[in-house]
Design brief:
The chain is an alpha/beta fold and 451 residues long. It has a domain at 55-259 and 319-389: TIM Barrel. It has helices at residues 76-83, 101-111, 123-129, 141-156, 174-186, 202-216, 225-229, 234-246, 274-278, 299-308, 321-328, 349-364, 370-377, 379-384; strands at residues 2-13, 18-27, 30-35, 41-46, 51-54, 56-58, 66-67, 72-73, 86-91, 116-119, 121-122, 161-165, 190-194, 219-222, 251-255, 261-264, 285-287, 313-316, 333-335, 341-342, 345-346, 400-403, 424-429, 432-436, 439-440. The strands form six sheets. Strands 1, 2, 3, 4, 5, 22, 23, 24 and 25 form a nine-stranded mixed beta sheet that branches. A hairpin with a 4-residue loop joins strand 1 and strand 2. Helix 6 (202-216) runs parallel beside helix 8. The longest helix has 16 residues, at 141-156. The relative contact order is 0.17.
């Protein structure tokens, strides 16, 4: 007898080219049967009229903090991930992450985690480890050598690659990035980057990353292409990526289905010239916390909050819907949330990305098929980041998301960014029930993902 039997569901597994009514048997944390025959489990779940998918894989999110004193995680982001059907995710993006990723992963294993969690080594942390806090300045060869040594230790400990937040540390040189990328290449892992600039400067910024890939032979990922190019430059950006992919450069892209981005108000994104770059005024910016929470800013409130509360998250309503559509319907684009919260405040992408993509792009806009959508959210991101997830093959980890295609939709808003979606009925992690009828019933089933 199986531990769980998922009965009469419409199974979509793009990796294995499955899209049909089947029964799934789960035993000892693994997929043990995938059949039209009748099966029975200790727990039988009627999935009639429901869709069964591999658990969603989010390769670009910003992980929860770990409290060294309390010896526990906050789980703000991870709970949102689980509620929207994500079973595995990658943090440490945009050059920022846990100071000691190996400890973070060890604690995830020790304590349990709402989802499976992997990390990239974060370039910003490597820099600060050796006292280089000036984001506008470069570093010497001696510091690069020390950073490379530390990076090698982290890669040995299981990080999935390296992330750069070039936009946030504009002093980083191509030489610095290339040297660290050479270390990543030794382990055949990935380099993901929030590239140097966006809007009218996105083309040379993409080319900077492509040239590093050419010089080092690494595979690279342009993070959240929507927030970099959805201002009238998306077609050009995608053409550059397609052309260089055709020459053998291993380059990928990801995007979330929203027309606004979110970052800290004190970041270099809002250095002088940003209004002109985006063609906006201050009212396009919405602060998510503090005195002006939920309000659009003006020059005075922007300057006040940027000076006094640089870590506050601000939403920039600046991107074009048609450009985001173009990105997400491109065959190379992975769906990834870029989810980030600060004490529960932030952008609804943290709680709504995956259900929203299905609702808007499969059902409403019909820009991608359900099979294409599930592929973009499961095995394609998993394979790109070297994670053994994203399929329902016999013997695979039983990380499974069951949803109602008629009901699935995001409900999170900019006013209430953590509201859970509708239509996510069940989520299993490692063959055990983590979420049932939209409610978390076990938030400690996930573990660390290591390369």
């Amino acid at each position: 007898m199986f531990d769980y039997a998922l009965l009469n569901g419409y199974v979509v597994d793009p990796k294995n080219k499955i899209a049909s009514k089947l029964n799934i048997g789960i035993k000892d944390g693994k997929i043990a049967a995938l059949t039209i025959d009748e099966i029975e489990g200790e727990n039988n779940i009627d999935c009639s009229d429901l869709t069964i998918s591999p658990g969603f894989v989010d390769i670009h999110m910003h992980e929860d903090s770990y409290d060294e004193k309390k010896k526990n995680f906050s789980f703000d982001i991870a709970d949102c991930m689980l509620k929207m059907g994500v079973t595995s995710a990658v943090g440490g993006n945009c050059g920022s992450g846990p100071k000691h990723p190996e400890r973070y992963l060890n604690e995830a294993d020790r304590l349990g985690y709402p989802i499976n969690i992997g990390l990239l080594s974060a370039h910003g942390n490597l820099r600060s480890d050796f006292g280089n806090f000036d984001k506008y300045k470069g570093v010497g060869k001696d510091v690069i050598y020390k950073m490379s040594e530390r990076l090698e230790f982290e890669l040995e400990s299981g990080t999935l690659g390296l992330s750069f937040g070039i936009r946030y540390i504009p002093g980083v040189s191509s030489d610095e990035m290339a040297a660290l990328s050479q270390t990543v290449k030794k382990y055949d892992r990935i380099v993901a980057a929030h590239i140097r600039d966006d809007a009218d400067k996105v083309a040379p910024s993409i080319m900077e990353l492509i040239n590093i890939a050419k010089d080092t032979g690494i595979k690279v990922q342009v993070s959240h292409i929507g927030s970099m190019a959805a201002y009238g430059q998306m077609e050009q950006a995608l053409q550059i990526i397609d052309y260089h992919s055709g020459t053998g450069i291993n380059i990928g892209i990801d995007c979330y289905p929203y027309n606004a981005f979110c970052t800290s108000i004190g970041s270099t994104t809002f250095d002088d010239g940003f209004l002109e770059r985006y063609g906006i005024d201050y009212s396009a910016l919405e602060i998510t916390q503090g005195e002006y929470k939920g309000q659009r800013l003006n020059e005075a409130s922007f300057k006040k909050e940027r000076e006094n509360h640089p870590d506050y998250l601000v939403v920039a309503h600046v991107m074009r819907d048609s450009e985001v559509d173009k990105a997400l319907s491109h065959p190379k684009t992975i769906v990834a949330s870029d989810g980030i919260l600060n004490n529960g405040n932030g952008h609804p992408r943290a709680a709504g990305t995956f259900p929203r993509f299905i609702r808007e792009y499969v059902i409403n806009k019909k820009l991608v098929s359900l099979n294409e959508a599930i592929a973009k959210m499961t095995y394609i991101p998993a394979e790109r980041f070297g994670i053994d997830k994203g399929t329902l093959s016999i013997g695979a980890d039983a990380d499974i998301t069951v949803f109602d295609i008629e009901k699935i939709r995001d409900t999170a808003t900019f006013e209430n960014p953590t509201l859970p979606p509708d239509g996510i009925d069940y989520v299993l992690i490692g063959g055990r029930m983590a979420l049932a009828q939209g409610k978390i019933i076990n938030r400690r089933l996930g573990c660390a993902i290591r390369a």
